[in-house]
Amino acid sequence: MLTVLHIFTGTLALISGIIAFSASKGGPLHRKSGLVFVITMLVMAATGAILAAMNQERLNTLAGSVTFYLVLTALLAVRRFKTLNMWPDYLATLLGFSAGVIGIEIGLTGMASETGKIDGQPAQVALVFAFVALAASLFDIRFIVKKAKLGKGRLMRHVWRMGIAMFIATASLFLGQSQVFPEAFRHIQYLGVPVILVILLTLYWLVKLPIWGLKSVSPKTARNG
Prior knowledge:
The protein is mainly alpha-helical. It is built from 8 helices and 2 strands; from the N terminus they run H-H-H-H-E-E-H-H-H-H.
């Protein structure tokens, strides 16, 4: 059941994610597809982490946890609760920091082993996930301490976290699970295209953000998207 749910939500996440990344920011299509993307990504990442933990796959458990954290905090960056309750931010930051610390432990343990690998993958990958989680959680602490208002900073935070989460999901499928595709398409020049597309779209919006972030997107629109 968890496997089916993971695959189903993962498929929807990739489709809705591409639509959300391609659509004009703040518009109806972006808000609707973005909401579907967030929900399906959270479920996909959570079920993936649970399945990986059940199979004792430490690296995939870490990847699912970091992805869940990034999507959750990207959502919190633009959707503020009416009560302005900061507890979701505190808990999310704790999740990210914990994932980062655990990722360092997993990576260093793997590098010290005879194979230098974790679950058949280079142990350094765990350190990359750890770096992302720790860096993001430190930014979270900064935002919490300053109680940053909605604006370009929060929008930037939203975009890059969604972009990295989408990159992790896309790379995990097209590069990490290439065996699910027809043999004729199991080549980097084919499977690498979606991954590169996500990177380019993320960079595009990060560059364009200073132009539209404070002019074309009102605080009300940003809270709804």
